[in-house]
Amino acid sequence: MILIGAIPVVMALLIVIPQITKPEIPITAADSNDVISIEYSTQHLKKIQFGVTDTIGATKTEFLSIQNDGNVKYSVTIDGKPEPDITDVLSKNTMKKLKALIKETGFMQIPRNSFTIKNDVSEYDKFGVKITLNGITSNVQWPEQNATNEFIPPLIVHVKDELDGIISEIIE
Question: pLDDT of 59-82, one tens digit each?
């Protein structure tokens, strides 16, 4: 009886252990026929007071565009002055990883949320990701976590971190 009861437990362990030891998104989720384009922006926003009224202005804006063929364009504007664009090409492996991350995690099904900014915040970063996968577009915008009382889903932060990593590699 014990031996028969142990068989399902052993089988479950054989399935679960590889998932725990390798938490990455499997690249096999990406299909070579998938067509993807990604636009990622970061704005460092600052509240500017004009006597009675306040306005919010961007002191720094970063924009990353990734095309299906791996071509990347990175643009930066600081205090309204654009800097020279940086172009690069991502490896096929990196592109497969990005496609798998978007497809496997359900990023395309994230509902559009509106995040309210705390009243006492005068400077914060705002992020935006527009992904078009096989003709379907998802556009998500959110502030950094300490600028809002609302919960930012970890999936959004994970995609942001991946794209920030690409930016770090490009600007080196």
Answer: 899 999 999 999 999 999 998 899
